[in-house]
Structures are given as structure tokens and as C-alpha cells.
Amino acid sequence: MISPETRKDWDTYFMDIAYMVSTRSRCSRRHVGAVLVQGKKLLGTAYNGAPSGVPDCLEAGCMIAEDYEVTVVEGQEKVIKKQRCIRTIHAEQNLLLFTDRVDREGSSVYVTDEPCWTCANMLANSGITEIVYHRPYPKDTGKVTAMMQQKGIVFRRLDTYSPPPETVVMIQD
């Protein structure tokens, strides 16, 4: 029997589920899981991967695209190189594809990784009111955080969270 002292809080519970979902990913660079929650009710799950019926990264390799972005850090311009796999649909995108708008209204999304700019844009327009993530994605943090503040979407990191050991996969950036 689990005592009240050892019972997981809701953030940990839902983030554990997001990490378990991420184990379905076959991307060799990053395993990401996302869950949609309304109150305490789980409404959907998704992970990153190639479209259904299409060879994935483990079968066909990653399709890497490189982008460069100029940002200002402490008053100095800095060029940031971004590499992303364009074979993979992100977990947040799949979550939006496979859930209904009515379910997303006022809901929270728990995602293993901080959303990239594209996913943040999509989530900002999806009806959700909160995004909870664990691993940071510093390349887009500033502009994503600013947009979430503008939209009034709660955007928070679980920085003291530890994922279940069986779900941890080494990440290549």
C-alpha cells in the first residue's frame, strides 16, 4: 500500500507518463513525449516520429536541416546554429493532430522537452492554458517564454523532476 507521503504529486505523475510515452519514439536524436490533461483527466498522448507508414529515423536515417539565427545576448549579436530532423513530426504536433479542439480548451500539456518555436506557436493557438516541461531547449527559450507571457499561457519547467530511469535516452544535439 502506498502511503500519502510517497504518493506522487500530479506534476510528477503526468510527466512520468510523458516520459513513458517518449519511449515509443524511434528518433535517434531525441525522444519526446507529450500528454494532454484536463484537470486531472488524461485526454491524449503523443510522441515524436515519422508519419505513420513512412520509414522512421532508425530505418532511413535522420533528415537534418540546418538553420542559423542571429540573436542578441548581453548586448552582442550571436549566431545560433540549429539542426533539426525534418523527417520527424514533433510530439506536440502529433498531440494536436490526434486530439480534439474542444478537449484542448483550458487544458494543460505536459511535455518532456521545452517546445521549439514552431510547436510553441501551434500550442499557443490550440486552446491550452498551460505548458509544463522538463528538459530545456535553450535555443528558443527567450522568444517562446515571451510569447507565452503575451498569450497568458502558464509556461513552467519542472527543474527538480527526475524521470523514471527506464525512460531516459541519451540525447544528441
Name some characteristics of this structure.
single chain, 173 residues, alpha/beta, 5-stranded mixed beta sheet, two-stranded antiparallel ribbon, 6 helices, 28% strand
Detailed description of the structure:
The protein is an alpha/beta fold and 173 residues long. Helix content is 27%, strand content 28%. The chain contains six helices and seven strands. The protein has helices at residues 10-22, 57-60, 91-97, 101-104, 117-124, 141-151; strands at residues 33-38, 41-47, 64-73, 76-85, 108-113, 130-135, 154-157. A five-stranded mixed beta sheet has the order 2-1-5-6-7, sandwiched between helices. The protein is globular, with a radius of gyration of 16 Å. 32% of the residues are buried. The active site is at 92 (proton donor). One of its GO terms (biological process) is pyrimidine nucleotide metabolic process.
> Which structural category fits the helices and strands?
alpha/beta
Largest sheet: 5 strands, mixed
Tell me the fraction of residues in β-strands, as a range. Answer: 25-35%
- Flag low-confidence runs: none
If helices are DSSP runs of H or I spanning 4 or more residues, what is the number of helices?
6
Average per-residue pLDDT, rounded, comes to: 91
Helix-strand pattern:
HEEHEEHHEHEHE
* Strand ordering within the main sheet: 2-1-5-6-7
SS elements, strand count: 7
Distance between the termini: 41 Å
Q: Could you say which overall geometry the principal axes of the C-alpha atoms support?
A: globular
**Radius of gyration over C-alpha positions, nearest whole angstrom:** 16 Å
Give the % helix: 25-40%
